[in-house]
Amino acid sequence: MQYVKFTVMIITSTLLMFLMMYLNTYAMQHLWFSETRGYMALYMGAGMAIAMLIFMWSMYKRKLLNILILAISTLVFCVSLYLVRSQTTIADDSWMKAMIPHHSIAILTSSRAGIKDVRVRSLAAEIIKAQEREIKEMTWLINDIKKNGIAESEQEAALRPVPAFNPE
Fold first, then answer.
1. Following DSSP, what letter does each residue of 56-103 receive, concatenated?
2. Span 110-127, mean pLDDT?
3. Among candidates 39, 38, 43, which has minimal Cα distance to 73?
């Protein structure tokens, strides 16, 4: 029963870590499912499983099962880390859905930091404008690709130009 509890604890913690990665997003409309963040949560959960099992080794008496859990956790960690670092499974929409919350974090930190230097404040304002414009452009592209498919050539892309997004 304690191994079931351990498994449920790791799964719950991994899901919580995935959700908590979105807490520093600036706006609700910037919340998109991110495959990359899913992989990040998996390697964090796997790392936590390894650390917790090692620290609580004496609580878990089935040594062979402990070694199996460590091996599986190490495999999940390595595969998830590879997927994050290589971006092998990330296509156009997955990339944009990961980038929108990332850009949103830049807006949050740039707009809420207690910046006193006018040069730094100016830089932060530029970052906010650029990130807002890029979020609008990526949102438009996600919707356009969903509706019309991927533009596979410059000629096809020219038929569907991205509107100019100028944040206020």
1. TGGG---HHHHHHHHHHHHHHHHHHHHHHHH-TT--HHHHHHHHHHHH
2. 96
3. 43
Distance between CA atoms of 162 and 151, rounded to whole angstroms?
12
Taking every pair of C-alpha atoms in the chain, what is the biggest distance, in angstroms?
Answer: 65
- Helix-, strand-, coil-residue percentages of the chain, each rounded to 5: 75, 0, 25
Give CA separation, 10 vs 27, 45, 53, in Å: 29, 6, 11
Would you state the structure tokens that stand for residue 32, as one six-digit string? 């998109």
What is the C-alpha to C-alpha distance for residues 92 and 150, in angstroms, rounded to an integer?
Answer: 9
CA distance 10 to 46: 8
Local structure of 116: helix, strand or coil:
coil
Rounded to a whole number of angstroms, the CA Rg of the chain reads: 21
Please give the structure tokens belonging to residue 104.
Answer: 């949103």
Using one digit for the tens of pLDDT, what is the confidence trace for 129-143?
A: 999 999 999 999 999
pLDDT-based confidence at residue 166 (cuts at 50, 70, 90): confident
Q: Are the beta carbons of 53 and 69 closer than 8 angstroms?
A: yes
